[in-house]
Specification:
Blueprint (H helix, E strand, L loop, with lengths): L2 H11 L3 E2 L45 E2 L6 E2 L6 E6 H6 L5 H4 L6 E4 L7 E4 L15 E5 L2 E2 L17 E8 L3 H4 L6 E7 L8 E10 L5 E14 L3 E12 L4 E2 L9 E15 L2 E14 L5 E2 L6 E2 L7 E15 L3 E19 L1 H4 L8 E20 L5 E22 L2 H9 L1 H6 L6 E3 L2 E20 L2 E21 H8 L3 E24 L2 E11 L23 E13 L4 E13 L2 E5 L5 E5 L3 E13 L5 E14 L3 E3 L2 E3 L11 E10 L8 E9 L2 E2 L7 E2 L2 E14 L2 E10 L7 E5 L8 E4 L4 E9 L1
Parallel strand pairs: 1-4, 7-10, 14-18
Antiparallel strand pairs: 2-3, 4-9, 5-6, 7-8, 9-10, 11-12, 11-44, 12-13, 13-15, 15-16, 16-19, 17-43, 19-20, 20-21, 21-22, 22-23, 22-24, 24-25, 25-26, 26-27, 27-28, 28-29, 29-32, 30-31, 32-33, 33-36, 34-35, 36-37, 37-40, 38-39, 40-41, 41-44, 42-43
Length: about 750
């Protein structure tokens, strides 16, 4: 059973911008031409990445990002930001997190089930999974949070087709982005509707795993001006079927085929040069026919369950945003509604089958959340010595989890134990002996601001803060046999709440001696919600009523060095993080998980991103490297045992490396390009204090692509092989105490694919 499901069952039962920006230059070292900004383009608004003429000198370029809630050159951001442009994502064939997170220094992707996989930055995590408590990484679309206060029903993994860029912010981002950004944040910036021209694109792919299934993907985009220069609409649709590769001995082979559907709509109206109204719609559904874990007691890519364990997640978002340019500042106001759903089936026979009479036991679980987010901010315009940003935000969420556990023939079994009259009150229908619910409500209210002042030529100081109130309530109903066995009643109710009001500061110094060099120092803090515990009572394993909010202080220094006439970019970063009152998801002796504050931890490390346009025409190299030492400071006694001082934090490999070598054959019309991508991930536990280690693997991907132009548009073709060495590295997993239930997730096997692209 995945720890996420254990946790949810428990809840009821109880730079420097990493430029590259990140386009690998063409054979002639050419760069895309600088784009002009429309007069109505409001500061802080989103659209395609924009290069700056002053920064393009025959080599690497600087692009515009919104990492600090305003449009800025990456050169001006005193923060650790990696920008992956849509063009770069297309070059490496990226579709989801698994394809591109390795290109972000300090980031680890914990691949498990679609919609339930997570990202960890700088080792700031106590679990590699999506658990009952609030996560440490924030996920955003156009600055709108996609991971609601408290635990997330699901984590959107948005397909990168027709995405302008993805911004990965390392280190705490709570001052501007709010809670759940202790370790960092991911912000998707999709392309918006363009009223200047008709545009269209399409992509078709076929993939196969030798010895397994064949999959495919179809994607399309269409952009149409409705009123030239004023009103436009853009739509994106895509469907992806990823091949199965798990053998479930109780059912068959290739049982974990997954299906992903995405839809996005953008409508942009610019009635004047100073006003812009934008509507964005996002819908995503992810279906996987069988949970793709392997069992430790069996060979790789194999499990043994008597029923399929499907999972479906659904996400919908509506956003309305208004930008207005005043003479002195830009106003941005936005509101969004987000809804998520989850439906999962888990075979619980290994856990309860024998104790409940020996019949097949199944958990059916549904989850639903609704969230409302509102934000308004005012950002100064121009390039005076003083710049500022002021804002306020309100976020509210309502969540409900419903679980139903049934065992074939359980009524007869319970009648034999308690008699038929008692047993009838402990079951629902013939087989269900638990049908509980959990409800969570959370709110986050905050005001925030930043001020920057240029003290001397090239030296700028920035100060900021966020004042917030975070509150959460939880209530559960535990009916049936489980309530009777634990509390002596056929229905048990519980309720709890947490609340906190506090302030977070931020201080940064940026020094730019010339256009080729920038150095910075940053101090920032992060926070996240405390979480009530609803774990079912067990006298042998006493647990706290919940967790209090934890906090984190981050100190870092970094630089961006654009050398040799913009042909070599070096982005080194050093950081030291103090994490206090740390919230952890712990494993109890009876197999259930619970939340607790477990003291303090530190994470200290170094990150380096380097991009080199070599003297060999057409050859480009990009290297990312991370060293991270993240561990607890003292021993902590828990109901599941002792977590020793110096224990490595979850999902915190000490070493990670990623390299891309790209060679474009010069002077050929189709621009054939050959790329090699290597990634190494070191080892780390999947759960704090747990013995099962993830990582410690290498992967190599190969890609050959080319493009050609016709009167009907630009066509491109790619053939590729992912995981050439067929590495079986563990991406996520926990030791739950028994070989029959210990589960782990492996890298997908070697995959061969072919993709065709077309752009008008």
């Amino acid at each position: 059973m995945s720890a996420f499901r254990l946790a949810l069952l428990t809840a009821v039962f109880a730079p420097p911008a990493s430029l590259l920006a990140q386009d690998l230059p063409s054979a002639a070292h050419g760069l895309k031409a600088p784009q002009k900004t429309s007069p109505h383009k409001a500061a802080g608004s989103h659209g395609p990445a924009e290069s700056h003429p002053a920064d393009v000198q025959g080599g690497l370029e600087t692009i515009t990002v919104s990492a600090e809630r305003r449009r800025q050159s990456t050169h001006d951001v005193a923060n650790s930001v990696t920008v992956l442009s849509g063009q770069f994502l297309q070059k490496i064939g990226a579709q989801s997190y698994a394809d591109y997170i390795s290109q972000v220094p300090g980031a680890t992707f914990n691949q498990a089930l679609p919609g339930l996989s997570t990202i960890t930055f700088r080792g700031i995590a106590t679990t590699a999974g999506l658990d009952q408590g609030q996560g440490t990484t924030g996920y955003f679309l156009n600055d709108i949070p996609l991971a609601e206060p408290g635990f997330a029903i699901a984590v959107p993994d948005i397909d990168t087709f027709d995405v302008a860029r993805v911004e990965a912010l390392r280190g705490p981002q709570s001052t501007l982005f709010g809670s759940a950004t202790l370790g960092g944040a991911i912000d998707y910036i999709p392309n918006q509707a363009d009223s200047s021209k008709i545009d269209a694109a399409a992509q078709s792919s076929i993939v196969g795993m030798p010895g397994h299934e064949v999959g495919y993907a179809e994607k399309g985009m269409f952009n149409i001006p409705i009123i030239k220069g004023k009103l436009a609409m853009r739509g994106v649709l895509d469907y992806r079927q990823d091949p199965g590769y798990i053998t479930n001995r109780g059912i068959g082979t290739n049982t974990n085929t997954s299906y992903t559907r995405n839809a996005r709509v953008s409508v942009v109206w610019t009635p004047t040069d100073k006003d812009k109204l934008a509507y964005t719609y996002l819908a995503q559904s992810s279906d996987i026919s069988d949970d793709p874990y392997s069992l430790i007691a069996m060979p790789d890519y194999q499990k043994a369950r008597q029923t399929e364990e499907p999972l479906r997640t659904q996400i919908q978002m509506h956003e309305l945003r208004y930008d207005h340019d005043f003479s002195f500042a830009t106003l941005s106001a936005m509101g969004a509604f987000l809804r998520k759903g989850k439906n999962a089936t888990t075979d619980y026979t290994p856990y309860y089958g024998t104790s409940m009479g020996g019949g097949n036991t199944t958990l059916n679980e549904t989850g639903d959340s609704k969230s409302m987010y509102y934000e308004v901010r005012l950002a100064s315009r121009g390039h005076s010595r003083l710049s500022w940003l002021l804002g306020a935000a309100y976020y509210e969420t309502w969540k409900r989890i419903e679980d139903n556990v049934s065992t074939a023939g359980v009524s007869s079994y319970l009648s034999g134990l308690y008699g038929s009259s008692v047993a009838s009150s402990l079951t629902q229908g013939a087989d269900s002996w638990y049908w509980g619910t959990a409800n969570y409500d959370g709110t986050e209210k905050s005001i925030f601001g930043e001020f920057s002042y240029t003290l001397l030529k090239g030296l700028t100081v920035t100060g900021g803060a966020r004042v917030f109130n975070a509150a959460e309530t939880a209530s559960t109903e535990t009916p049936g046999y489980l309530a009777y066995a634990s509390y002596g009643t056929s229905l048990y109710r519980s309720a709890s709440s947490t609340s906190q009001t506090s302030a977070l500061p931020k201080v940064a110094l940026r020094y730019e001696p010339n256009k080729a060099m920038m150095f910075y120092f940053l101090f920032s803090e992060g926070y996240r919600f405390g979480t009530p515990n609803s774990v079912i009572y067990n006298a042998a394993y006493p647990t706290p009523t919940g967790t209090k909010s934890d906090s984190l202080m981050n100190y870092e220094v970094g630089a961006r060095l654009n050398l040799f006439h913009h042909h070599l970019l070096l982005e080194p970063t050093l950081y030291w993080i103090d994490w206090s009152n740390m919230q952890a998801r712990l494993l109890r002796g009876d197999g259930l998980t619970y939340g607790a504050n477990v003291g303090s931890a530190i994470s200290r490390g170094a990150e380096l991103s380097a991009t080199w346009i070599t003297p060999i025409e057409g050859l480009t190299l990009k290297v990312n490297g991370t060293y991270d030492d993240a561990h607890t400071n003292q021993s902590v006694t828990t109901s599941g045992g002792i977590i020793a001082g110096g224990s490595q934090l979850a999902s915190s490999p000490k070493w990670q490396f990623s390299e891309i070598m790209s060679y474009t054959v010069p002077n050929l019309s189709m621009e054939p390009t050959f790329s090699v991508i290597h990634h190494y991930r070191g080892s780390a536990p999947g759960l704090l204090g747990n013995s099962l280690m993830t990582g410690n693997y290498n992967t190599v991907d190969l890609r050959l692509s080319g493009t050609f132009h016709t009167p009907q548009g630009q066509f491109g073709a790619s053939i590729y092989v992912n995981n050439v060495g067929n590495s079986h590295g563990i991406t996520m997993g926990y030791d739950n105490g028994s070989a029959l239930v210990n589960q782990y997730y492996l890298l997908p096997p070697r995959l061969i694919g072919f993709t065709l692209n077309w752009h008008l």
